[in-house]
Design goal:
Blueprint lengths: L1 H14 L6 E4 L5 E2 L5 E2 L6 H4 L3 E4 L17 H8 L13 H6 L6 E7 L2 E8 L2 E5 L4 E4 L15 H17 L1
Antiparallel strand pairs: 1-4, 2-3, 5-6, 6-7, 7-8
Length: 171
């Protein structure tokens, strides 16, 4: 992938058409029995919701960023980079603004399954999923999401649920 992206970027530069932003991402990941499923099932574990995001932005230095971002942050970034107004209806935040922000901003995800709507939020190292049951993970100490911390964490679950409800109202 690195070689192919490098070749694409070099081809665009050779065209000499001015500054071009190249964005490489995906809409979902794949599960290979990590949590008992195969493919891109309707679940919200990291292997399904954490996707690559590579941005070649001509006026920026290359660096790896660990901030939590969302695919919703791409359109505001593109518009802002082109010096265009960002519609108020856009739910994302400009990627550059997020990367330089002191605060972490939550990322939301959801899927509709036969047994109902599953929603989740990721903020800092905390990941919360609600639906058929509640799941809470500390991704720093448990990156494979194998230990559900939901029991006894009522305050944190209430905070996460409030974030999800606030997000749903904004849609």
């Amino acid at each position: 992938v690195d070689d192919a992206l490098g070749a694409l970027i070099k081809s665009v530069e050779r065209m000499n058409i001015g500054p071009v932003i190249v964005i490489f991402t995906s809409d979902h990941g794949e599960e290979f029995m990590d949590h008992g499923g195969m493919g891109h099932t309707q679940r919200l574990f990291e292997e399904l919701v954490k996707v690559p995001l590579i941005v070649n932005f001509p006026r920026a230095k290359s660096k790896r960023v660990s901030k939590i971002v969302s695919l919703l942050d791409i359109p505001p970034f593109i518009l802002n980079s082109c010096k265009m107004d960002i519609p108020e209806s856009f739910m994302g935040m400009d990627l550059l603004e997020k990367m330089t922000s002191e605060n972490d901003h939550p990322a939301f995800f959801e899927t509709q399954r036969k047994d109902g709507l599953y929603s989740g939020v990721r903020i800092d190292n905390c990941k919360y999923i609600c639906g058929h049951k509640e799941l809470l993970f500390d991704l720093e100490s448990d990156p494979k999401e194998s230990v559900n911390l939901a029991v006894g964490r009522g305050r944190r679950i209430t905070e996460c649920n409030a974030l999800i409800q606030q997000h749903r109202k904004s849609i």
